[in-house]
Design goal:
The chain is mostly helical. It is globular, with a radius of gyration of 23 Å. The chain is about 75% helix and about 0% strand.
Length: about 270
């Protein structure tokens, strides 16, 4: 087999790109484990985990729980509501079905900031300026993506299986929970993951809806930590950032097996 070798300029360019890609992670790790962090990319002068202890205790710990509640709640509501709406959309023949699907695509492209004002006043009138209101608002914004994706996965479930189960006396609930949902678990995993990470990273809606510091998630807390007490605690910020990123990575590895096949289902079919 013929071996290909890199030219020296190409090797230098790749090494330079690798350094640029690794530098932010190296900065995070070196400052997070340095109890006397100064914000410079150097080997830790005082190695320790005090920054992590501070990042998971007190207000930071409460923000972590708020983020977990908002993200998990939003993902669960999005999957339940999306599956309940996508199944009839997949099975029923109705006029204007394709127009409805492409309208959902258009809604998916709209920036969430564009509907922030009506969402805020609707939540204010309903008394939902709290974490549950954040979950509902984010679920509404996720619904076009959820509907499109789950509808496509439900389309791949053979209708003959449902007809055979119906002939054997199964109810609609038994057909959906026993056949359709298990065979669509890859799509459900993808929708849950993207809804979770989207809600986990959301900044503006929790800031406006929660109104009080006790309800803020980590995304808002990270912003507030800059310049707190008139100085920047680089060690705390680095540890806080690592903890902030960890759940999304963990959820990905938990759902990785289903998501490997689930990503192939993204698309729009009439």
């Amino acid at each position: 087999m013929e071996r290909t070798t890199l030219s020296r300029p190409m090797a230098i360019a790749l090494a330079f790109m690798a350094v640029i890609w690794v530098s932010p992670f190296a900065w995070l790790l070196s400052n997070a484990f340095d109890t006397a962090a100064t914000g410079r990319l150097i080997w830790p002068q005082r190695f320790g985990v005090d920054n992590f202890i501070g990042a998971i205790g007190g207000d930071a710990g409460r923000m972590f729980l708020n983020s977990l509640l908002i993200a998990a709640g939003t993902a669960t509501i999005s999957v339940v509501v999306g599956a309940a709406a996508a199944y009839p959309l997949s099975r029923l023949r109705m006029p204007g079905k394709n127009a409805l699907l492409w309208t959902l695509v258009l809604l998916r492209m709209l920036p969430s900031v564009g509907v922030l004002v009506p969402l805020y006043f609707a939540a204010q009138r309903s008394g939902l300026l709290n974490q549950f209101g954040v979950m509902l608002a984010l679920s509404c914004l996720n619904l076009p993506f959820t509907l499109l994706l789950l509808k496509n996965f439900f389309d791949t479930v053979p209708i003959e299986l449902e007809e055979a189960a119906y002939v054997d006396g199964a109810s609609l609930w038994q057909i959906v929970t026993g056949i359709v949902l298990p065979m669509s678990r890859a799509g459900l995993a993808v929708v849950w993951f993207f809804s979770f990470t989207g809600a986990w990273n959301e900044f503006l809606l929790p800031l406006i809806f929660s109104r009080v510091e006790a309800g803020f998630p980590m995304s808002v807390g990270l912003y507030g930590a800059f310049g707190r007490m008139g100085a920047i605690d680089y060690g705390f910020l680095a540890a806080f950032s690592i903890i902030y990123a960890a759940p999304a990575v963990g959820v990905y590895f938990l759902l990785r097996r289903n998501m490997n096949t689930g990503f192939a289902g993204v698309g729009v079919k009439g």
